[in-house]
Amino acid sequence: MQYEVALQRVKGIKKSFDNAAQKSILKYKDNRIIDLYETSEVFEIFTSSEGASGSKKLSGSETPPLVSLQDGYSVQIEEERFGGGIELTETEYAREAPDTSMKVNIALQRKRNALLVDNYNLFLTNMFLLLNDGFDGTYYQAPDTAAIFATHTWAAGGTFANNSTDALDEDAVDAVVLHGGEFTDPQGVPMPIDFDTIIVKKGSPNAKFAKQQFAMGISPVSVADINIYYGEYTIIETPYITTRANWFMRASNFVQGNSLKVGIGVFPKLNDPIKQNNEAIRTNCTGFYKEGCVNMPMDWYGSTGAA
Question: Residue 23: which residues within 8 A CB-CB, separation 6 or more?
Fold first, then answer.
C-alpha cells in the first residue's frame, strides 16, 4: 500500500516538472544572443554562405543574369541526449513517519526542484559554451574548423579575423564597427556588417562600462536573468559568460541570420517511474537538443579583453 501511494505521488509531479522545464528554457527564446529554436530534426545540415554575385547594370531590354550563391562549407549538427534522475528510497516512503504521504510530498518536491534547476543550468551552460569556448574551439568550431573567434579561411580562399585581445573601451568598439563597415566577401565584394549589440558578463567591469558609455539612464528589458539595454548599442549582460574580461559583439540584423544556434528536439521531461531492486522508485529526466556554429561567424566578433 505504501509503495502504491508513493508511486502515485511520483507520477503526480510529472506535469508540473515538464511544464516548468519547458517554460524555464523558453524564457531564453528572445535572448538576442544565441538563436534558440524548436525542431523535429535529429540531424540538420547547413551550407555556409560566402556571398552572392551576378547582378549588373542592364540595358533597356536586357534579361537580368542569374545571381549565383557562393556556397562554402557543409556543416552538420546532431542532437545529443541530456538528463538526470531522482530516486525516492523505501525508507523515505515507508518508514520515516506514520504520515507517509506528507513525507513523500516533501521529499519529492525537494528532489524535483533540485532536478529542475540542475537540468536548467546544464542547458544554459551548454548554450553559452558557444561563447565561453569560442576562443579555444575545444567543443565547438566554425565551418572552417577554426575556433568561433579566430582567423577564418573562406572555402573560396582568403581569410578574415573576428577576434582580438582588446579591452572593452570606446576605441575597441569603434574598431569592431569599422571592421564591419569594411567587410568584404571572398570575391572582394563589399558586405557591410552592422555590429549593433554588445554582450558582456553580468555585473562585471565590462558591463558597468558598456551601460555607462552606451546606455546611460536606460532601464533594461529582462529575459530571465539576462538584462537587455536598448541605447546607442543594444547592451546585453548575462551571468553565463564565465570570464569577466571577455566581451562580444554581434550583428542582430545580419541578413544570413545568427551563426550560433541551439535546436531543441525534446524539452527535458520526466519519464515513467521505475522500481529498483532495493525497492527505491527511480524517475529519469531526459531531453534532446543540439548546438553549433552553422555559418562562417562573420556576424560575430569576440575579444578576450586581455590587452
Answer: none
Nearest 5°: the CA angle 86, 91, 94 is 110
Whether 135 is in a domain gets the answer yes
| Nearest in space to 292 (alpha carbons), one of 25, 49, 37, 40 | 37
Number of domains in the chain: 1
Q: Which three cell numbers stand for residue 156?
A: 573560396
Residue 59, domain member (yes or no): no
pLDDT band at 6 (very low <50, low <70, confident <90, very high): confident
Residue 99 in this model has a pLDDT that exceeds 60: no
pLDDT score, position 226: 94
- pLDDT band at residue 98 using 50, 70 and 90 as cut-offs: low
- The answer to which of 8-12, 104-108, 229-233 has the lowest mean pLDDT is 104-108
Say if CB 34 and CB 199 are below 8 A apart. no
> Residue 165 belongs to what domain range?
2-49+74-303
Task: Supply angle C-alpha 287, 222, 180, rounded to 5.
Answer: 90
Let me know if residue 141 belongs to a domain.
Answer: yes
Query: Which residue in the block uniquely carries the three cell numbers 550563391?
Result: 69
Q: Report yes or no: 105 and 86 within 8 Å, Cβ to Cβ.
A: no
Q: In the predicted model, what is the mean pLDDT of residues 2-7?
A: 78
What string of DSSP letters covers 14-27?
HHHHHHHHHHHHHT
Give a yes or no: residue 62 inside a domain: no
Residue 13 has pLDDT above 60, yes or no: yes
